[in-house]
Structure to design on (653 residues):
């Protein structure tokens, strides 16, 4: 099973030795970097294309209909048809739009989405760049997406776009804080920011999700990740049927394709990071490591698409209340119990942490319960007198 | 110095020149929104300079805080306080030329002093771990840390009080 | 890869002077704040530069403090700008002259 596990590493090594026969020595480092970058640059957009197909078929099945199945067997050529359509559409820029901002926003928004792929460990020894600040790199890049959505909204010079843009920025900065806080317990226990070190600290089957702080942290991180990507039920910024299409109303053709691509690449990378940080990355008993990694990532993506097919959209005040009044205190309590769990190191630490977490959940639920107004009593409106 | 060193140096100089160029564009562009976009690029460029100087944790924090949070604040403020449709107001006052001359003189003075002084600190770049920074924050620098947290609390309350509408 | 220390110091000085030019020339309050951010960043790069060669911990910890203080400054400054805009309906510094006699 060793060979199947390391098949991509062996492939890259054999490619390098084959190329080392007729290339000079100093260019081999370039070649190694180029192979990693090339693999990511091919993997990213292809994944995104087939994720769109997966989403349409899955949401179609939830809605009791087939998804796209006309183009190619089982709809497998549908993304290529979509790509051709988006490439050949006319690129319309509104007359009063700010040309510089309108052009720049979709271009720059794809860059963080692609850069995050370089710190994801796809398997044992298969990470493109082993940064010593891997997780901070991910958090920083996912927080830069906020401005460019606003630049897109403002540059379109359109009231609906501006409304969508403001909602998007409010949502993204509100959900950033619980996201960063929910990752900190993992950093306490693993002791390093590097994603490779975090995965190796979850060796065997003691993944972080099987601990009291891990369950809460996993749920908070997953929910805030869904909010950061602007997916249902948090897709207020691009809510179709409410504000036309939100901040990307005025974009057509290739620029819209870039926004779409950025959203799906973000979906994949957030699922991959949640799987790395809480679910144990590529750790698993019997199958090759990259099979485990893709299984976990696609399980999380499946849950996200399930949310999209099932849940209605949250209202703006419900969205912000959820972030500030529920997730943020819960993330702070999670930090506390992670510290307690690390310090005690007996069987009692699980019990103490679980009790504190349960108490915090009960208190937060009680404090956030929905207010049901009393039944109104009218003075003159009753006909039975 | 083989190919890698020259390539690394060339890219470092390119980043430095790029940061200076975007900073110049920030202070000279007439449209304030474009100036904010160029400021975001300047801050990202400074984060890349930190990466070259092996201060990786600071590069991450710079992007997270400056580009992710402060630029959002600045762009919100621009949006809330601008009137769309009057790009004809001049963005710079009439002190342009005297300031330029004074700053050019200051710049020439500074550069000549820098070039003349024998710096005996060689640029040997050591890498710092985030763990060491954390221990330093909680160990040696705990007093500035607590004071900064108090200042942040005061700033938060102050900003809320000042920007609140009078209702 | 070794860059001479002089070149980086010239870079930070030039960045600081560019920020200073913006702070002295802009009419718009938010523009002045943006130029102040450029100046603070130039100082940060200087700190990191000397931290890399002399004392890694002290330099980088102070850069963290400066970044945090810049965030506090920007938030309070922009709150003041919003309050001024609400009162005077303008944010150009030569039109806010209520205290002039």
């Amino acid at each position: 099973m060793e060979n199947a596990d390391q098949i991509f590493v062996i492939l890259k090594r054999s490619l390098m030795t084959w190329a080392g026969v007729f290339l000079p020595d100093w260019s081999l480092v370039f070649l190694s970097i180029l192979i990693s970058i090339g693999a990511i640059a091919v993997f990213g957009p292809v994944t995104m294309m087939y994720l769109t197909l997966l989403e349409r078929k899955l949401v179609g099945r939830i809605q009791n209909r087939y998804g796209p199945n006309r183009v190619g067997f089982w709809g497998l050529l549908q993304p290529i048809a979509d790509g051709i359509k988006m490439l050949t559409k006319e690129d319309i820029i509104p007359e009063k739009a700010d040309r510089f901002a309108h052009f720049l926003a979709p271009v720059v928004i794809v860059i963080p989405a692609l850069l995050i792929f370089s710190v994801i460990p796809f398997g044992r020894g298969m990470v493109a760049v082993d940064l010593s600040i891997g997780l901070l790199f991910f958090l920083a890049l996912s927080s830069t997406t906020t401005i460019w959505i606003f630049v897109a909204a403002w540059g379109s010079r359109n009231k609906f776009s501006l409304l969508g843009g403001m909602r998007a920025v409010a949502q993204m900065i509100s959900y950033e804080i619980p996201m960063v806080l929910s990752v900190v317990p993992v950093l306490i226990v693993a002791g390093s920011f590097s994603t490779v070190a975090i995965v190796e600290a979850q060796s065997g089957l003691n993944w972080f999700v099987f601990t009291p702080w891990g369950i809460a942290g996993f749920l908070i991180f997953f929910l805030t990740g869904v909010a950061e990507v602007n997916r249902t039920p948090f897709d207020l910024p691009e809510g179709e049927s409410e504000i036309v299409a939100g901040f990307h109303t005025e974009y057509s053709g290739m620029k819209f394709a870039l926004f779409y691509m950025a959203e799906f690449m973000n979906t994949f990378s957030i699922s991959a990071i949640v799987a790395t940080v809480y679910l144990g990355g590529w750790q698993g008993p019997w199958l090759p490591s990259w099979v485990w990694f893709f299984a976990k990532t696609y399980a999380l993506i499946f849950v996200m698409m399930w949310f999209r097919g099932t849940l209605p959209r949250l209202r703006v005040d419900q969205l912000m209340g959820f972030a500030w009044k529920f997730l943020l205190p819960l993330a702070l309590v999670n930090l506390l119990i992670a510290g307690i769990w690390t310090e005690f190191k007996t069987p009692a630490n699980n019990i103490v942490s679980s009790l504190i977490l349960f108490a915090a959940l009960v208190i937060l639920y009680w404090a956030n319960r929905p207010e049901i107004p009393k039944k109104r009593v009218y003075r003159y409106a009753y006909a039975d007198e | 110095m083989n190919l890698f060193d020259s390539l690394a140096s060339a890219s470092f100089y390119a980043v430095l020149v790029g940061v200076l160029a975007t900073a110049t564009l920030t202070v000279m562009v007439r449209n304030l929104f474009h100036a904010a976009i160029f400021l975001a690029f300047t801050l990202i460029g400074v984060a890349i300079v930190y990466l070259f100087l092996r201060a990786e944790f600071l590069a991450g924090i710079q992007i997270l805080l400056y580009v992710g949070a402060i630029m959002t604040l600045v762009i919100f403020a621009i949006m809330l306080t601008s009137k769309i449709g009057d790009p004809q107001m001049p963005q710079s006052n009439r002190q342009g030329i005297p300031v330029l001359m004074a700053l050019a003189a200051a710049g020439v003075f500074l550069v000549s002093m820098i070039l003349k002084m024998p710096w005996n600190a060689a640029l040997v770049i050591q890498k710092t771990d985030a763990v060491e920074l954390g221990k330093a924050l909680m160990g040696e620098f705990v007093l500035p840390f607590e004071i900064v947290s108090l200042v942040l609390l005061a700033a938060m309350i102050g900003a809320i009080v000042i920007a609140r509408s009078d209702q | 890869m070794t860059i001479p220390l002089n070149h980086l110091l010239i870079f930070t000085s030039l960045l600081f002077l560019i920020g200073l030019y913006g702070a002295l020339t802009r009419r718009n309050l938010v523009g002045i704040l943006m130029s102040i951010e450029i100046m603070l960043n130039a100082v940060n790069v200087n700190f990191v530069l000397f931290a890399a060669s002399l004392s890694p911990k002290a330099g980088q910890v102070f850069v963290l403090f400066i970044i945090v203080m810049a965030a506090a400054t920007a938030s309070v400054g922009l709150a003041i700008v919003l309050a001024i805009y609400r009162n005077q309906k303008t944010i150009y510094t030569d039109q806010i002259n209520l205290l002039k006699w």
